[in-house]
Amino acid sequence: MNSEDIGYLPATEMAAMIAAKDISPVEVNDAVLERIETVQPKLNPFITICADEARVAAKAAEAAVMAGDDLGPLHGVPFTVKDLVNTAGVRTTYGSHALEDNIPEHDAISVARLKAAGGIMVGKTTTPEFGHKPMTEAPLFGRTLNPWNQDRTSGGSSGGAGVAAAAGLGPLHVGTDGGGSIRIPAAACGIVGMKQTLGRVPHDGTPDSFALMSFIGPMTRTVADCALMLDAMSGPHPSDVHSLGRETPDLIGAAAADGDLSGLRIGCRTFLGNEVIDTETRNLFDGAMPAFSDAGGTLIASDGPFTPTLPFWAPLTYSMWAARFGGYADQLGDKMSETLRYWINEAQGVSGVAVQDAMAVRTRIFREVEAWFDDVDLVIMPTITRPALPVDHDPREAIEIEGKSVDVPRAAWYPYTHPFNLTGHPAITVPSGWTADGMPVGLQIVGPWLADDLVLRAAACFERLRPWADRRPDIG
Fold it and tell me: Residue 259: its pLDDT value, please?
């Protein structure tokens, strides 16, 4: 196999081939690093490439294979980590000049668990500064481009991870999601991205565990890899109050290719507090729905009233940014992203009463969403309302859908994602198809609280009937 074929190998196959001595960890990681060197100048998905560290780890992994040691489920498999997640001895910049020389002493729990399973970190992927917007660009490193069309955004804030997965730069990529930041770039780049139930993967990088709306999760090309990665990262840890007492269900078994959806009621929603969707995106969504009935599920129309969540997500998020990053704004001035400074300034008008009101509404929305599952077992909806936006779009400005100006991206491009950051429900996005001009869009599967295994099962069934993993962007 050449380096491109190795870079696109699923982790499930790669780990099995390494264990069987059909391919070596050194060969795998050298191939992925070669791919990274080729793609990085074109698409810019990395802030830091850990070539030397990865090669040392790969040699140790190869020695373990040859010695007949017990191997972890990810032994020798390369992975990347978004640069909002701490990595021991490797700089973690948060996409900001304020932390461009920051070198953590410890790995985040999620990273430590991937390493314990045998994974090898090959680099840190790009993020907008402190993950604040749905386009991946920052003064520290520039702009990350969509592999399907370099005039379009990669999405964000886990845009580097989305590009790395789509471009075949290894199979496993750690993203974070505070309002859709895994699912937006996954849909925009044509891959799988999952925001699991709150607490499934411990989040030890946040100063406020109790009010958490941000998630560390997997971004992959296949559902089986998503399950494999999520399984490795999951489990309780004392750093995260929401993780305590959680037992991990059989996520890998749930994503097995032989499952079906017999007996399940599948709710279908086209809108979620929004009113406009691109026609081609809607047609791809509508055309994908029969796959769920072909897998044995019963489709049920579920479009009903829903409380738009942006008015409540925004004060909670902007005030958090002001509290955590306001000091950096004073320190950096124009060296901080202008959009982040804008939203930090917006937070100055957010009162404590408004924050308390938003927290109360968050509970009401959780109850509203959880009540969906009295009547259905899963709910399917689009992930984004149109393909990736122009690469230079200002996230404060209205977007266009079929030539019509609608609303800002948070309200009009991804109204389907941030509700589930507020509620904590599991949600996965998978490709629902490609438009006539070759751009991917996604559909999102949402499940009841803790039903991560059921969400993965539905995604795996859909993938089996509507596969996408053989598609590769022409990067040039």
Answer: 85
CA distances from 395 to 132, 153, 298, 436 (A): 10, 11, 38, 25
- CA 14, CA 141: separation in Å to the nearest integer? 31
Distance (Å, whole) CA 405 – CA 413: 12
Tell the residue number behind the tokens 């190795």, with chain if given.
6
pTM for the complete prediction?
0.98
Could you tell me the strand order of the sheet in which 378-382 lies? 46-49, 120-125, 78-82, 172-177, 215-220, 192-195, 427-434, 440-446, 378-382, 265-268, 298-301
Listed in sequence order, the DSSP H helices in 389-451 are: 409-412, 418-423
H-assigned helices in 136-234: 159-166, 183-189, 223-233
Catalytic residue annotation = 82, 157, 181
Q: Where are the alpha helices (DSSP H) in 269-309?
A: 279-288, 290-294
Q: Is 6 helix (H, G, I), strand (E, B) or coil?
A: helix
Residue 476 has pLDDT above 90, yes or no: no
State the Cα–Cα distance between residues 184 and 347, nearest whole angstrom. Answer: 24
CA distances from 121 to 33, 112, 234 (A): 11, 10, 18
Average pLDDT of span 416-435: 98
Across the range 460-469, mean pLDDT stands at 98
Strands (DSSP E) contained in 43-119 are: 46-49, 78-82
CA 217, 222, 223, 225 dihedral sign is negative
Distance CA 123, CA 59 (A): 17
Q: Could you report the per-residue pLDDT of 348-395, keeping only the tens digit for each?
A: 999 999 999 999 999 999 999 999 999 999 999 999 999 999 999 999
The backbone region for 87, taken as left when phi is positive above 0, alpha when psi lies in -120 to 50, beta otherwise, is: beta
**Run of H or E residues at 51:** helix 51-67
Residue 257 has pLDDT above 80, yes or no: no
Reported as a pLDDT band with limits 50, 70 and 90, residue 4 is very high
Please, are residues 292 and 266 in contact by the beta-carbon 8 Å criterion? yes
pLDDT digits (tens, 9 = 90+) for 99-157: 999 999 999 999 999 999 999 999 999 999 999 999 999 999 999 999 999 999 999 99
**Cα 465 to Cα 455: distance, rounded to the nearest angstrom:** 16
Find where tokens 């991917």 sit.
440
Q: Using CA atoms, how far apart are residues 189 and 433, in angstroms rounded to an integer?
A: 11
